[in-house]
């Protein structure tokens, strides 16, 4: 079930990133992310009103909020890296480190998985690197070591989110996500205030923003379920395959070309999934 939910998380998160990219074109990246975060929080509160899940511990709430805040800071670092550096470096480095951190923590805390799953994990990490390189003609060569600073910070932020939420997810399902959304929203509010940006978005941008928020919540939900069902490293690595889904949707809907590296990455992901199920 951890593998099943992890794959669903990657599929839904990939769809959310694709729709979020379209929403950013209509509303601007910062505003699209901010309102998607709020939409997700509203959906979670509505779900809580229906299912009335028991409140988790104060420690769990604080860890969940910290996870969301750190994840949002990672997202800001990634956007900044893409703005001032090479996108062909920023995306794969951050995605790879985000998946690698839970693998290392899992190995230290609960030990290594079976050999076939270890092979699947490392093949999946290679896949994440390949499918994250969205620029067909990109040659990811570093001009200077400082090019890695922001991508590494982004990857640490995402990986830390995976680790913290996995721990809190053992207490409940909805409350960790609500705490995470609250922490992330507060960070984004602070950024918008510091940047003194307008929070208004065009009316035609709202459907995409709302869909992006709903899909992002869905991706988080399936990751939480994967974390509850099995190992953190397997859940995190499979969930981190979401760039492949984004690339496939861009190819299918927008007719964007898929590079040879991305095709190899998608193939590697399929083989990795098979190895992790053996």
Description:
- There is one protein chain.
- By secondary structure, this protein is mostly helical.
- It has helices at 2-27, 29-51, 58-84, 87-109, 115-131, 149-168, 174-195, 206-229, 232-239, 242-253, 260-277.
- The two termini are 13 Å apart.
Q: Helical element count?
A: 11
The overall pLDDT, averaged over residues, is 83
Fraction of residues in helix: over 70%
* Unreliable residue stretches: none
Tell me the span between the first and last alpha carbons. Answer: 13 Å
Q: What are the defining features of this structure?
A:
single chain; 278 residues; 0% strand; mainly alpha; 79% helix
Question: Which helices and strands, and how do they pair?
Answer:
Elements: H1 2-27, H2 29-51, H3 58-84, H4 87-109, H5 115-131, H6 149-168, H7 174-195, H8 206-229, H9 232-239, H10 242-253, H11 260-277
Helix pairs in contact: 1-2, 1-8, 1-9, 1-10, 2-7, 2-8, 3-4, 3-6, 3-7, 4-5, 4-6, 4-9, 5-9, 5-11, 8-9
Give a brief description.
This protein is an all-alpha fold. It has one domain.
């Amino acid at each position: 079930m951890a593998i099943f939910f992890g794959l669903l998380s990657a599929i839904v998160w990939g769809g959310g990133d694709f729709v979020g990219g379209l929403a950013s074109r209509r509303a601007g990246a910062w505003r699209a992310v901010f309102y998607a975060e709020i939409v997700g929080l509203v959906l979670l509160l509505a779900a809580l009103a229906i299912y009335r899940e028991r409140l988790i511990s104060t420690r769990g709430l604080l860890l969940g909020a910290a996870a969301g805040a750190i994840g949002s800071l990672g997202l800001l670092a990634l956007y900044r890296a893409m703005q001032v550096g090479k996108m062909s470096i920023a995306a794969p480095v951050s995605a790879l480190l985000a998946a690698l951190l839970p693998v290392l923590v899992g190995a230290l805390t609960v030990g290594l998985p079976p050999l076939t799953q270890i092979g699947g994990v490392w093949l999946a990490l290679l896949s994440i690197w390949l499918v994250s390189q969205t620029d067909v003609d990109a040659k990811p060569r570093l001009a200077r070591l400082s090019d890695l600073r922001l991508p590494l910070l982004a990857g640490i932020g995402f990986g830390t989110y995976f680790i913290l939420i996995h721990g809190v997810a053992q207490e409940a399902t909805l409350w960790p996500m609500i705490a995470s959304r609250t922490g992330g929203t507060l960070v984004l509010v602070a950024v918008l205030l510091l940047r003194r940006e307008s929070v208004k978005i065009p009316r035609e941008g709202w459907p995409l923003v709302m869909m992006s928020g709903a899909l992002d919540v869905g991706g988080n939900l399936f990751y939480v379920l994967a974390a509850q069902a099995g190992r953190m490293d397997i859940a995190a690595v499979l969930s981190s395959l979401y760039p492949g889904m984004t690339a496939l949707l861009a190819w299918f809907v927008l007719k964007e070309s898929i590079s040879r590296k991305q095709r190899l990455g998608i193939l590697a992901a399929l083989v990795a999934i098979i190895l992790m199920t053996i």
